[in-house]
Amino acid sequence: MIERRPFESLGGADHGWLNARHHFSFAGYHDPQRVQWGALRVWNDDTIQPGTGFPRHSHADMEIITYVREGAITHEDSLGNKGRTVAGDVQVMSAGTGIQHSEYNLEPGITRIFQIWIFPNRRGDSPSWGARPFPRADRSGQFVALASGIEGDADALPIRTDARVLGATLKAGETAEYHFADIQRHGYLVPAIGKVEVNGVRLDACDGAAITGEQVIHVTALEDADLVLVDAAG
Question: Could you tell me the pTM of the whole model?
Fold first, then answer.
Protein backbone atom coordinates (compact mmCIF):
# COMPACT_ATOMS: atom_id res chain seq x y z
CA MET A 1 0.00 0.00 0.00
CA ILE A 2 1.25 3.46 -0.92
CA GLU A 3 -0.77 6.44 0.28
CA ARG A 4 0.03 9.79 -1.31
CA ARG A 5 -0.14 12.69 1.11
CA PRO A 6 -0.17 15.88 -0.98
CA PHE A 7 1.83 18.83 0.31
CA GLU A 8 -1.33 20.93 0.28
CA SER A 9 -2.97 18.52 2.75
CA LEU A 10 -0.25 18.88 5.40
CA GLY A 11 -0.74 20.78 8.62
CA GLY A 12 1.46 23.69 9.54
CA ALA A 13 1.84 27.31 10.50
CA ASP A 14 3.56 30.44 9.23
CA HIS A 15 5.29 32.22 12.11
CA GLY A 16 6.96 34.81 9.91
CA TRP A 17 10.51 33.74 10.72
CA LEU A 18 9.47 30.08 10.24
CA ASN A 19 7.11 28.53 7.72
CA ALA A 20 6.55 24.96 8.90
CA ARG A 21 4.57 22.17 7.26
CA HIS A 22 3.91 18.98 9.22
CA HIS A 23 3.53 15.52 7.69
CA PHE A 24 2.45 14.28 11.15
CA SER A 25 0.65 15.82 14.12
CA PHE A 26 2.90 18.44 15.70
CA ALA A 27 2.53 21.50 17.92
CA GLY A 28 -0.90 23.05 17.21
CA TYR A 29 -1.69 20.65 14.35
CA HIS A 30 -3.40 17.37 15.25
CA ASP A 31 -4.77 14.77 12.86
CA PRO A 32 -5.66 11.44 14.52
CA GLN A 33 -4.94 9.68 11.20
CA ARG A 34 -1.43 11.19 11.02
CA VAL A 35 0.12 10.85 14.45
CA GLN A 36 3.07 8.64 13.49
CA TRP A 37 4.08 6.01 10.93
CA GLY A 38 5.63 3.05 12.69
CA ALA A 39 8.50 4.45 14.76
CA LEU A 40 8.56 7.64 12.64
CA ARG A 41 6.97 10.39 14.74
CA VAL A 42 7.77 13.74 13.06
CA TRP A 43 8.58 14.93 9.55
CA ASN A 44 8.59 18.72 9.36
CA ASP A 45 9.29 20.72 6.22
CA ASP A 46 10.75 23.98 7.60
CA THR A 47 11.70 27.20 5.84
CA ILE A 48 13.74 29.48 8.14
CA GLN A 49 14.35 33.13 7.40
CA PRO A 50 17.90 34.60 7.53
CA GLY A 51 19.19 35.52 10.99
CA THR A 52 16.48 33.56 12.79
CA GLY A 53 16.03 30.08 14.22
CA PHE A 54 15.06 27.90 17.13
CA PRO A 55 16.41 29.24 20.47
CA ARG A 56 17.78 26.82 23.03
CA HIS A 57 15.25 24.21 24.12
CA SER A 58 15.22 20.66 25.47
CA HIS A 59 14.63 17.16 24.11
CA ALA A 60 14.81 13.64 25.55
CA ASP A 61 14.26 10.10 24.25
CA MET A 62 14.15 10.93 20.55
CA GLU A 63 16.40 10.49 17.51
CA ILE A 64 16.34 13.79 15.60
CA ILE A 65 17.71 13.88 12.05
CA THR A 66 18.07 17.12 10.10
CA TYR A 67 18.42 16.99 6.31
CA VAL A 68 19.44 20.38 4.94
CA ARG A 69 17.77 21.10 1.60
CA GLU A 70 18.94 24.66 1.03
CA GLY A 71 21.25 27.06 2.86
CA ALA A 72 22.77 25.86 6.15
CA ILE A 73 21.84 25.31 9.79
CA THR A 74 24.12 26.16 12.72
CA HIS A 75 23.84 23.97 15.80
CA GLU A 76 24.93 24.51 19.42
CA ASP A 77 24.08 22.29 22.40
CA SER A 78 24.57 21.78 26.12
CA LEU A 79 27.32 19.21 25.49
CA GLY A 80 29.49 21.94 23.94
CA ASN A 81 28.98 20.79 20.35
CA LYS A 82 28.94 23.42 17.62
CA GLY A 83 28.51 22.79 13.91
CA ARG A 84 27.26 24.16 10.60
CA THR A 85 25.51 21.70 8.28
CA VAL A 86 25.08 22.75 4.65
CA ALA A 87 22.67 21.79 1.87
CA GLY A 88 22.74 18.08 1.04
CA ASP A 89 24.32 17.11 4.36
CA VAL A 90 22.88 15.65 7.54
CA GLN A 91 23.11 16.07 11.30
CA VAL A 92 21.84 13.68 13.97
CA MET A 93 21.04 14.39 17.60
CA SER A 94 20.32 11.46 19.90
CA ALA A 95 18.52 13.21 22.75
CA GLY A 96 18.93 10.29 25.18
CA THR A 97 18.50 11.29 28.83
CA GLY A 98 18.23 14.95 27.85
CA ILE A 99 19.94 17.67 25.84
CA GLN A 100 19.41 21.37 25.19
CA HIS A 101 20.17 22.81 21.76
CA SER A 102 19.61 25.72 19.39
CA GLU A 103 19.38 25.72 15.59
CA TYR A 104 19.87 28.98 13.67
CA ASN A 105 20.01 30.12 10.07
CA LEU A 106 23.01 32.44 10.10
CA GLU A 107 23.14 32.58 6.30
CA PRO A 108 22.23 35.58 4.08
CA GLY A 109 19.37 33.62 2.44
CA ILE A 110 16.64 31.26 3.58
CA THR A 111 17.39 27.78 4.89
CA ARG A 112 15.14 24.83 4.14
CA ILE A 113 15.32 21.60 6.15
CA PHE A 114 13.53 18.34 6.72
CA GLN A 115 13.36 17.72 10.47
CA ILE A 116 12.74 14.01 11.15
CA TRP A 117 12.09 12.47 14.58
CA ILE A 118 12.16 8.70 15.17
CA PHE A 119 11.43 6.95 18.48
CA PRO A 120 14.55 5.23 19.92
CA ASN A 121 14.73 1.53 20.71
CA ARG A 122 15.89 2.17 24.26
CA ARG A 123 16.13 4.83 26.94
CA GLY A 124 18.79 5.81 29.42
CA ASP A 125 21.70 6.46 27.02
CA SER A 126 23.74 9.64 27.14
CA PRO A 127 22.87 12.30 24.57
CA SER A 128 25.06 12.83 21.50
CA TRP A 129 25.32 14.87 18.31
CA GLY A 130 27.09 14.36 15.00
CA ALA A 131 27.14 15.61 11.42
CA ARG A 132 28.83 14.69 8.17
CA PRO A 133 28.79 15.58 4.48
CA PHE A 134 27.01 13.35 1.97
CA PRO A 135 27.99 14.44 -1.56
CA ARG A 136 25.00 14.17 -3.87
CA ALA A 137 27.20 12.50 -6.49
CA ASP A 138 27.65 9.50 -4.15
CA ARG A 139 23.89 8.85 -4.16
CA SER A 140 23.30 9.45 -7.84
CA GLY A 141 20.89 6.84 -9.14
CA GLN A 142 20.67 4.92 -5.88
CA PHE A 143 19.53 5.08 -2.27
CA VAL A 144 22.34 5.60 0.25
CA ALA A 145 21.94 5.36 4.03
CA LEU A 146 22.49 8.77 5.64
CA ALA A 147 21.58 7.85 9.23
CA SER A 148 20.96 4.34 10.49
CA GLY A 149 20.63 2.04 13.46
CA ILE A 150 20.68 -1.06 11.24
CA GLU A 151 23.71 -3.34 11.21
CA GLY A 152 25.88 -3.02 8.13
CA ASP A 153 25.25 0.70 7.47
CA ALA A 154 28.75 1.60 8.60
CA ASP A 155 29.04 4.79 6.56
CA ALA A 156 25.83 6.32 7.92
CA LEU A 157 25.50 8.54 10.97
CA PRO A 158 24.45 6.29 13.87
CA ILE A 159 20.97 6.46 15.38
CA ARG A 160 19.61 4.37 18.25
CA THR A 161 16.60 2.84 16.56
CA ASP A 162 15.63 0.10 14.11
CA ALA A 163 15.42 2.52 11.20
CA ARG A 164 17.43 4.15 8.46
CA VAL A 165 17.19 7.49 6.69
CA LEU A 166 18.24 7.32 3.04
CA GLY A 167 18.87 9.77 0.24
CA ALA A 168 18.95 9.45 -3.55
CA THR A 169 19.37 11.82 -6.47
CA LEU A 170 17.83 10.85 -9.79
CA LYS A 171 18.03 12.38 -13.22
CA ALA A 172 14.80 12.57 -15.20
CA GLY A 173 13.98 9.07 -16.47
CA GLU A 174 16.19 7.24 -13.94
CA THR A 175 14.77 4.58 -11.61
CA ALA A 176 16.08 3.52 -8.20
CA GLU A 177 14.93 0.47 -6.24
CA TYR A 178 14.68 -0.02 -2.50
CA HIS A 179 14.01 -3.38 -0.85
CA PHE A 180 12.40 -3.54 2.58
CA ALA A 181 13.56 -6.33 4.89
CA ASP A 182 9.94 -7.43 5.30
CA ILE A 183 6.49 -6.14 4.40
CA GLN A 184 5.79 -5.05 7.99
CA ARG A 185 8.30 -2.20 7.66
CA HIS A 186 6.99 1.35 7.40
CA GLY A 187 8.46 3.53 4.65
CA TYR A 188 7.94 7.25 4.20
CA LEU A 189 9.27 8.95 1.07
CA VAL A 190 9.39 12.66 0.24
CA PRO A 191 10.88 14.26 -2.89
CA ALA A 192 12.72 17.36 -1.69
CA ILE A 193 12.94 18.40 -5.33
CA GLY A 194 11.23 17.04 -8.43
CA LYS A 195 8.35 14.79 -9.41
CA VAL A 196 8.52 10.99 -9.21
CA GLU A 197 6.44 7.84 -9.45
CA VAL A 198 6.64 5.24 -6.67
CA ASN A 199 5.29 1.90 -7.89
CA GLY A 200 3.08 3.91 -10.21
CA VAL A 201 1.92 6.47 -7.60
CA ARG A 202 2.82 9.99 -8.67
CA LEU A 203 4.36 12.42 -6.17
CA ASP A 204 5.03 16.09 -6.65
CA ALA A 205 7.83 17.87 -4.83
CA CYS A 206 7.33 17.79 -1.03
CA ASP A 207 4.41 15.32 -1.16
CA GLY A 208 4.68 12.39 1.23
CA ALA A 209 4.22 8.71 0.42
CA ALA A 210 3.30 6.43 3.35
CA ILE A 211 4.39 2.93 2.39
CA THR A 212 3.65 -0.42 4.02
CA GLY A 213 3.03 -3.96 2.81
CA GLU A 214 5.54 -3.50 -0.02
CA GLN A 215 8.62 -5.70 -0.42
CA VAL A 216 10.25 -3.38 -2.94
CA ILE A 217 9.62 0.09 -4.33
CA HIS A 218 10.67 1.37 -7.74
CA VAL A 219 11.06 5.13 -7.82
CA THR A 220 11.19 6.72 -11.28
CA ALA A 221 12.06 10.40 -11.68
CA LEU A 222 9.70 12.32 -13.96
CA GLU A 223 12.15 15.23 -13.64
CA ASP A 224 15.45 15.67 -11.80
CA ALA A 225 14.74 14.71 -8.19
CA ASP A 226 16.31 14.68 -4.73
CA LEU A 227 14.67 12.08 -2.46
CA VAL A 228 14.62 11.30 1.25
CA LEU A 229 13.25 7.96 2.50
CA VAL A 230 12.75 6.64 6.04
CA ASP A 231 12.56 2.86 6.57
CA ALA A 232 11.32 2.25 10.12
CA ALA A 233 10.07 -0.60 12.25
CA GLY A 234 6.34 -0.89 12.70
Answer: 0.97
